[in-house]
Amino acid sequence: MKLSLKMLAILGVAMLPSIVSAATDRDLPDNNFVVDGKQYEGNDSVRLAGVPAGYTLVWSDEFDTPASLTEKWIPMDWEAQRVNHELQTYRPGDEKLLASDGKVCHTAEVSDGALRINCFKGEDGKIYSARMNSKTGGETASWKYGYFEARIRIPSGLGTWPAFWMMPADVDWASEGWPECGEIDIMEEVGADPNMAVCSLHAAGHNHMDRTQVSASRHIENMENNWIVYSMLWDEDHIEMYADGHQILNYANDGTGKRNWPYDRPYFVTLNLAWGGDWGGYRGVDESVLPVAMDVDYVRVYQKVPAVADL
């Protein structure tokens, strides 16, 4: 049941096998996405019971109407292999696609007060899913600092890779690029490591390409197929990430500038469900689990109310 407001880049060409039933550790390719992040691990005794004092709602999608898909989100229309060797093809939710059983399916749909991102095998043999960026007034919606929260139910299955994350909105890809621009991953999980919530930050000084990303993880019992609230508190000094109010990651601005803190510019929200790829498929994929879905009850963005003296 929905909680009320008051109650509360890398291109690739390598393909992975379609079905892998078992693998030993020695058979597994390197997985650069998760590193020992204990120095960034949050304190479990630190709890966040809800929206911090002094913050006010500035943007949200409660997914109460199908119009959300076009009014509040920009869909990606991408072929497979565009990033991280991922196997899914992204299509907008309003596009009608035929699944392998001949039924008409959509990669994203809104019903019963929630967003559903569907990942399924098409009649043409492709794996389809959805990826979308926050939008307002016809343009990308982005924010510098704030409290970000989403209530999400992720699927299970070898090959799944759901995520709730953020990228900067003003990147000049010709001169800057990734990871210099920065990336904020509030929640990721892969079916190969079930019920392990991973929070990460990527920058020139710390990123998964050289296994130095700021990362922390925590096992959450029954994370898969259950509703969890994922959140981030972000200001000029710290980034803290939580799952159901339990702190997972705590990263402080070291004051050295953009190399380790490109997190001083507006970022937009992304929701997606990937299939396979460098991390999602590092133990292979199992197409027998398809179709699967990632459900989102709401996404809410809060920012600090300026003090009277600052107005």
Description:
With 311 residues, this protein is mostly beta strands. The chain is 3% helix and 39% strand. The strands form three sheets. Strands 1, 3, 6, 7, 8, 12, 17, 18, 19 and 21 form a ten-stranded mixed beta sheet that branches. Strands 2, 9, 10, 11, 13, 14, 15, 16 and 20 form a nine-stranded antiparallel beta sheet that branches. Strand 14 (183-188) and strand 15 (196-202) form a beta hairpin. The longest helix is centred in the N-terminal third of the chain and has 4 residues, at 68-71. The model is unreliable at 1-27 (pLDDT under 50).
CATH level-two architecture of the domain at 32-75 and 131-285 and 298-305: Sandwich
Number of DSSP strands? 21
Output the number of helix runs.
2
| Quaternary | single chain
* First-residue to last-residue Cα separation: 39 Å
Helix content: under 10%
CATH domain class name of the domain at 32-75 and 131-285 and 298-305: Mainly Beta
Rg calculated over all Cα atoms: 19 Å
Strand content: 35-45%
Point out poorly predicted stretches: 1-27
Calculate the mean pLDDT score and round it. 89
| Structural class label | mainly beta
The CATH topology annotation of the domain at 32-75 and 131-285 and 298-305 reads as Jelly Rolls
Sketch the major β-sheet.
Answer: 10 strands, mixed
What's the arrangement of secondary structure elements?
Blueprint: E1 55-61, H1 68-71, E2 73-75, E3 88-90, E4 97-98, E5 104-105, E6 108-111, E7 114-121, E8 127-129, E9 131-136, E10 139-140, E11 142-143, E12 146-153, E13 160-168, E14 183-188, E15 196-202, E16 214-219, E17 227-234, E18 238-243, E19 246-252, E20 267-275, H2 277-280, E21 292-304
Parallel strand pairs: 3-8
Antiparallel strand pairs: 1-21, 2-9, 4-5, 6-7, 7-8, 7-21, 9-10, 9-20, 11-20, 12-17, 12-21, 13-14, 13-20, 14-15, 15-16, 17-18, 18-19
